[in-house]
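Technical appendix A lists one of the benchmark inputs used to test multi-chain prediction within the project. The record comprises two sequence entries:
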Amino acid sequence: MSKKNICVTLQYDGSRYDGWQKQGNTDNTIQGRLETMLGKLFEQEIEVNGSGRTDAGVHAVGQVANFQVDTPYGPGKILELMNTYLPKDIAVTDAKIVDARFHARLNAKSKTYRYRLSTGFVRPVFGRQQILWIPEDLDLGRMREAAALLTGEHDFTSFCGNKHMKKSCVRRITSIEIEEVTTTCGDTEYDEIWLTYTGNGFLQNMVRILTGTLLEVGRGEREPAEMTAILEAKDRERAGAMAPAHGLTLWKVEY
Amino acid sequence: MSKKNICVTLQYDGSRYDGWQKQGNTDNTIQGRLETMLGKLFEQEIEVNGSGRTDAGVHAVGQVANFQVDTPYGPGKILELMNTYLPKDIAVTDAKIVDARFHARLNAKSKTYRYRLSTGFVRPVFGRQQILWIPEDLDLGRMREAAALLTGEHDFTSFCGNKHMKKSCVRRITSIEIEEVTTTCGDTEYDEIWLTYTGNGFLQNMVRILTGTLLEVGRGEREPAEMTAILEAKDRERAGAMAPAHGLTLWKVEY
């Protein structure tokens, strides 16, 4: 029997994991947990290809991954079995059989990440693991100006957390949306700001460094126009601080 | 200087606490944490009166409590200080000075609790600590019929978790609303059902036993009409199982 190529959509609360990518013998990664679980479930060695790595503490509501498996089960049964054996902070929301050549990373056309900020006076209790609380006035107009300069195809070396990156740091960001959202919990309203990044790929820590830099612009510590010089410098030291992992979620991957 | 009577509104994620009410020397209760923190903050012994106890694992988005304190600070400063020293899963969302005679429990006129269920095929990852996942078809029409029979003034002995209750078990439930709500997370829709109970007071475990009983009606294991006989029996054995704590949230207290 030939193997089936299964493509799954995953949600995870990354709070207690060391990120997506498996690390040697440790099993405290999303990929590691999935491979161990699938190996036991199907009694065969299974390699899971994610659309990309997420950092330790980063979440996903639409991570996509594929794996080859020799099984008589259909995708509905596979989804059910995976959800039965996965821990409560990881869930498969969709599973389908795809073409044998499909590869979740190599075929990904675009990815969307969302960074959630709460700027209210009161710290959010519910959702606190997915939201960065900064009770400050941010100038969104200035942040949008800066975001416009970062949009498009650029060499993002200045926004790459990997100082030993040998491959090209050129990526295309198709949009950075900055929206104000009001969420309600009981009689309490939370003012949230969502920074939503869509692009053809993101470098290590890139969304978090972009967010940290935009926050410095929003606070008035930097000028929006500086973005052009930061990009041109190709020097990580020129960009802002990296925003904390827990505010970031991989929202969607498109093929 | 006479003491100020401070009334606060609190949110908490009850997951890791042993409920509201302090227990001897343990400090793992919401009330215990608040009293210890306020005692250190104001260097005086402070007793916190909650509107009512919440069970271990039950959450609050609108718990109300009051305490007497000798301080020159105004309510805004007190809210800020409390939030600085409280753990991240407890927050003060409002603070005000109230009449010296105000008592959060004795003056409460009505309370609203909400029980959240997710009936979708996929287990919710985000919010899983506040939602009971039961991937089943529930007949909401039957549940609403049963809820109508439970609404009004009744002796709720059959729905009281304290078998040694010596005081009256008569309470008035003004409404039980059962609504279908769709929440969205990325491209995944979650079908939630909210059971919202408003009344002049609730006995120990009462909302969880009401919810467990209504779930049995929704599954077809009981008839809606049984509710009248269960109330009349005044016997805990006649009602259904107690629903898990984590789906329940104290939503609002009115004065």
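Chain B has two domains: 4-98, 110-254. The helical segments of chain B are 30-42, 75-85, 140-150, 206-218, 226-233. Comparable benchmark entries are summarised in Table A2.
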